[in-house]
């Protein structure tokens, strides 16, 4: 076990390290006796920058952050770095202010952590990564995130009482590297022989030099219009980044075309991976509902050929939050009323005949054309007592819902955006209805958030019953 904690006095140049402590993801373990102080500053860290301590579980060297699988890594304790067994054991933020004579740095605390869940043990190599582009709330890596990494192999290198590895229990230890500006001996431009310090970005390694037609990270992403789309050219190792702005709740479709076999990813503004065409379970296009905001599309070559032109094709349809849509017809496939929204039933009425007073069936579909998960009520009603009415849901969570409706708002169910469910409606004349050849009139309502869509059914008995 080990515990990263902060002491009130660390070096004379620090007014109060305690004030520099920021919130950590903690895994408390009662009785842990190992304490590790972590202090780091290289002259380039912005206040609020996210930082992680990573363990090289298998001891085969730390995983390259230029590997494409690093994109989508969740910066949380217990998460693996890309497709490796390297594991994150701590997450914290850089602090600034009077506690630092110059700039900002890491002075933070990790509470007691059990080695076992992480698969590490005393001697497991550790490395500190600081991500300049990520601040609090941004806890996912995407292509183009800049980072600085640091570890040392010897105790006392630029400060500290232990090398960057998990220590033995018990004890009080310090991991430290500060520049001369803050009273230390670490020189980022000239690390000593025991130190490993580097900077880079999570962009794919081997990208092109000058003349690239689109930026290689979210920082220099090319604007992408929702109507015009974009074109580009790829070379081996190239990565093109685009930024799209969704002005309001919308349904977005995105796909690639062109002569080169290419792959793409979609991220939100915080770097969370929304879609990857390299996922074996994904379709070859993206289709989903997005809130307003900025999003990023990254394009790279895939397959044997990674050189050639491509196009990014987009379709965007604005959505309201809730929009019940109801259609009706003789079968589940042949229905009327799609995208007709009214409470009168106009344009979505189905007429049928009951031969000799037999039961008549119709099918209706209730869908959510809105962009948010909505609770919709479904209720069918009759205009007189000459018919018996039953209906049930036959797709999704199927079942007879007639008895669940009563006189209330109807059968309530949650509908995801742009989803629908099919219902079966049975209308059977009563004995009096047969004798009098009464016409049955039925309303089916789908409602939610004060909105209503209505379909109608009319049933006539085609001829008198045989005696």
Distance between the termini: 90 Å
Total of DSSP H or I helical runs spanning 4+ residues:
3
Mean pLDDT: 80
Structural class estimated from helices and strands = mainly beta
Taking pLDDT < 50 over at least 5 consecutive residues as the criterion, the unreliable ranges are: 1-32, 205-211
- Helix proportion range: under 10%
The largest sheet has its strands arranged as 4-3-7-8-10
Largest sheet: 5 strands, antiparallel
Number of domains: 3
As a percent range, the share of strand residues is 35-45%
User: Based on DSSP secondary structure assignment, what is the total number of beta strands?
Assistant: 29
- Give Rg in angstroms: 32 Å
Q: Name the overall outline.
A: elongated
Give a quick precis of the structure.
The chain has helices at 115-118, 402-405, 431-436; strands at residues 2-4, 34-40, 50-55, 87-93, 106-108, 110-113, 126-131, 146-152, 171-177, 195-201, 222-223, 230-234, 239-246, 250-258, 262-268, 273-276, 286-290, 293-301, 308-318, 324-329, 349-354, 360-368, 374-382, 387-393, 399-400, 411-415, 419-429, 440-448, 451-461.
Looking at this protein, list some descriptive labels.
467 residues, mainly beta, Jelly Rolls, Immunoglobulin-like, 3 domains, five-stranded antiparallel β-sheet, five-stranded mixed β-sheet, elongated, disordered N terminus
Description:
Helix content is 3%, strand content 41%. The chain is an all-beta fold and 467 residues long. The chain folds into three domains: 2-201, no CATH class; 222-318, Jelly Rolls, CATH 2.60.120; 324-461, Immunoglobulins (Immunoglobulin-like). A five-stranded antiparallel β-sheet has the order 4-3-7-8-10, with no helix packed on it. Strand 15 (262-268) and strand 16 form a beta hairpin. The radius of gyration is 32 Å and the shape is elongated. Mean pLDDT is 80; it is low at 1-32 and 205-211.
